[in-house]
Fold:
Amino acid sequence: MDGTATLLRQPQQALDVGQLRADFPILKQKIHGKPLVYLDNAATTQKPQSVIDMFRRYYSEMNANIHRGVHTLSQRATQNYEEARTKVQHFINADSFKEIIFVRGTTEAINLVAQSYGRPRLKAGDEIIITEMEHHSNIVPWQLLCGQTGATLKVIPINDSGELKLDDYKDLLNARTKIVSIAHVSNSLGTINPIKSIIDMAHAHDVPVLVDGAQGAPHLKVDVQDLDCDFYAFSGHKLFGPTGVGVLYGKEALLDAMPPYHGGGDMIKMVTFEKTLYNDLPYKFEAGTPHIAGVIALGTAIDYVSRVGLDSIVAHEHSLLSYATEAAREIPGLRLIGTASEKTSILSFVMEGIHPHDLGTILDHEGIAIRTGHHCAMPVMEHFGVPATARASIAMYNTHEDIDDLINGLKEAHKVLM
Amino acid sequence: MLDIKDLYQDIIIDHNRSPRNFGKLEHATRVAEGYNPLCGDRLTVYLNLDANIIKDIHFEGTGCAISVASASLMTDHLKGKTKAEAEEIFQNFHTLLTRDNEQPEAEMLGKLSALAGVKEYPVRVKCATLCWHTLHSALNGKETTVSTE
Structure:
């Protein structure tokens, strides 16, 4: 249990998982005649009834375009949309609603920062620091930026446990570093990075830090003021909300100084052909009609998570991960990929003589959904010398029985294929 | 109800564990590489093609059981066949895996019919056909890496 003190506080109450599961209608499904065991939450999470219902409610009761109308429906839609923004602000403890920008997802958030913060500033010879464990969405936008500006990408390596080599990070930080971009939690390894100290070290060099929180926000308490991160990005669909919605948090001063990302309606105050005045934050970065229903439903998802209690969720997931890790270690020929001392919710592994794809198919046949492949983290696969891994990822509605089913499924795969 | 053994028949398990014609072919006249980036299946097909007859055929690579077994069965089946016969068998094999309302010629396929179960797992069709796409590339003299993406 060492090192988990930072994760766990005393849970207010133990999760009533049975009650919780009843809130998620998709969990009643049968796959190939077996009850669904959904262990692919890092790819996307399932939605509680309240989130599903919000779409029907929005389109039945409050649908109108936002920010522009004086009629009642428009005001209703606008109010609900902006309420969702406030919910997000409080969820991550941002100082102001102006610092919460709605985008399509983590990928768009990172691209926005690369283009709007990075592109005007970076020159040939400047450096961007990322890590070896990043998801492609936190690699490719920076590669594009390097191509546009002549900057170079520097990569903090990982060790064989899947932890960052922080001494190498110290060496990489220098006067040419212009931004650090790093995952809060690795989607392929489950590693929780010590982002607070990483941010402190970057700030000592006057370098801003973007945190990819796609796997962080659903599984850890995020306090952007405490972290002092300059940008934090996460996706709604990994947080029990809908696809097509995500959040970019940015410090107000930074966002203020950045030019717009997309141009269009709503991000302007005034347009003439001679000159256009941009809107205030956060609207400067929200061009066009957004996924209004999606944003409001994201607010509903955050309500749900807050009601269940993130502390309880974290404790439950930690218990399941420990249980799964121990059981997996007992399986002959199974090699865990990602054994950092600080981990959350993700179990990646390979089995000797059994290709992950075959494993995935056999588990699917047992009703078990895991992810097999490179998880959009090809550099990680290369580091561990594997073409792909099998990845089981946990969320609040998983149970110890789910883990038992997974382990039995692995043994079944062994029988079928070996 | 689908039985997983319809996909992973004993013959498939056998060909995966002990792939036939596995290893580099010295004096190959045609070589082609195939790669499935989705799952990391990667293989090389070596041909000894003489006056349009496949005198010898080998393969090398790593991948899932379906891709390895399919390559192994393919190489066994194609030895001594003409280029034209190989292409016809490929068409029939593809039909076996993908078409509902067409019947492939069972006699032409022989042991390849063991892979019929793949049809029920559409995501895995690419695993079974990678070696055939690679073969096709080798037969037609293209040397660039084939992908089933």
Q: What stands out?
A: Chain B touches chain A at residues 1-2, 4-5, 7-8, 13, 16, 37-42, 62-66, 121, 123-124, 127 (CB under 8 Å). The beta strands of chain B are 30-36, 41-50, 53-62, 146-147.
